[in-house]
């Protein structure tokens, strides 16, 4: 098995794609109408956005979107990534700080409500 994609269900796919592109520099990928859009996060991983209405079309009668996760994006310069995200409209949650295990970790909340961890590489 390998991770193929992470799909975030949002109210406004276009707004989410615009924000994540500006805030995190993710590159556009596949598009399916106005209800599904992929951004490339690294060389293989896909971060996709789907309208909440899209899940109902895929699984009629079982259309409750999943909840309860965060995205973790690894950055070479966590402070610069944090500043860029906040400048693009993210809500600052936790400023970058070094953890006892040596990793730099920060958190922002995207306009769609998703919690995004911006961190240095970890082992």
Q: Can you offer a commentary on this structure?
A:
The protein is α/β, with parallel strands linked by helices. 24% of the residues lie in helices and 40% in strands. The protein has helices at 13-24, 52-58, 78-87, and strands at 5-10, 27-32, 36-41, 45-51, 70-74, 91-98, 104-109, 115-119. The chain has a 4-stranded mixed sheet with strand order 1-4-3-2. Strands 5-8-7-6 form a 4-stranded mixed sheet, covered by helices on one side. A hairpin with a 3-residue loop joins strand 3 and strand 4.
Low-confidence region ranges = none
Distance between the termini: 20 Å
Shape: elongated
Biggest sheet: strand arrangement: 1-4-3-2
* Number of helices, where a helix is a run of at least 4 consecutive DSSP H or I residues: 3
Largest sheet data? 4 strands, mixed
**Helix content range:** 10-25%
Relative strand content: 35-45%
Task: Please write the string of helix (H) and strand (E) elements.
Answer: EHEEEHEHEEE
Oligomer: single chain
Calculate the mean pLDDT score and round it. 82
Report Rg: 15 Å
Number of strands: 8
């Amino acid at each position: 098995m390998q991770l193929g994609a992470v799909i975030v269900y949002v109210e406004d796919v276009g707004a989410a794609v615009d924000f994540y592109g500006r805030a995190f520099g993710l590159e556009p990928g596949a598009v399916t109408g106005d209800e599904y859009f992929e951004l490339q996060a690294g060389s293989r991983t896909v971060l996709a956005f789907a309208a909440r209405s899209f899940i109902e079309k895929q699984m009629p009668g079982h259309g409750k979107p999943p909840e309860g996760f965060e995205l973790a994006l690894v950055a070479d310069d966590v402070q610069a990534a944090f500043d860029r995200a906040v400048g693009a409209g993210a809500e600052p949650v936790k400023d970058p700080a070094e953890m006892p295990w040596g990793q730099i970790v920060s958190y922002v909340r995207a306009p769609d409500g998703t919690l995004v961890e911006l961190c240095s590489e970890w082992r």
